[in-house]
Amino acid sequence: MWVKQFPWCPLAIVHLYILNHLGDSQDILPTPQIYKLTADYISDKLKVEWYDGGSAFPSETDVTWEIQILRKEPMEEVALNTFESTLTGDDNLLQWEWTSDLPFNCTTHYVRIRSRLGEQWSEWSEMENIPDPPAVPNFFNCDVLNSDEIKCQWERGRSTGLYGSRGTHYFLTER
Question: From the record, what ranges are coiled-coil (predicted)?
């Protein structure tokens, strides 16, 4: 009887149902966060890692990720790539790799990601950066023994930071 008096009531009920079950886009798609950013200054390869937030989705759901690479001021976009995955109900660590056409030691590179579920995009993650390496190599020293031989020492597992003109990379080996 009450519904008959207010013909708009079923529409309001449907609207409330949609609001309560779908929520806004921020509830559905949280802003992704970059977990780890790894730059290889020798090969100029970048690895981006992030958790997919799949535990918020009880059933399998396909999601598209967009990874944007920018560099220098005023933030020029140099890459915009998509990555597809399926949310499985668990928080899975995802990773994506990219090789820069410009050496990392030449300029700072910036990375951010966002996700899309259906037609809805999340907000972009916070911008993370890959700084250009220091001008002075870390934990590195050399002694000139003669005109043909130089003896160098550095901490294992750390980049020497040795780069030449035009992005030439110097590799050191142990004997």
Answer: none
Are residues 87 and 155 both part of a single domain?
A: no
pTM: 0.61
Residue 115 has what pLDDT? 95
Closest among 38, 34, 44, 53 to 78, alpha carbons compared = 44
CA atoms within 13 A on the CB side of 69: 23
* 111 CB-contact burial (10 Å; exposed 0-12 / middle 13-18 / buried 19+): buried
pLDDT recorded at residue 158: 55
**CA atoms within 13 A of residue 12's CA, in its CB half-sphere:** 5
Residues 123 and 146 in one domain: no
- Of 113, 116, 152, which Cα lies nearest the Cα of 33? 113
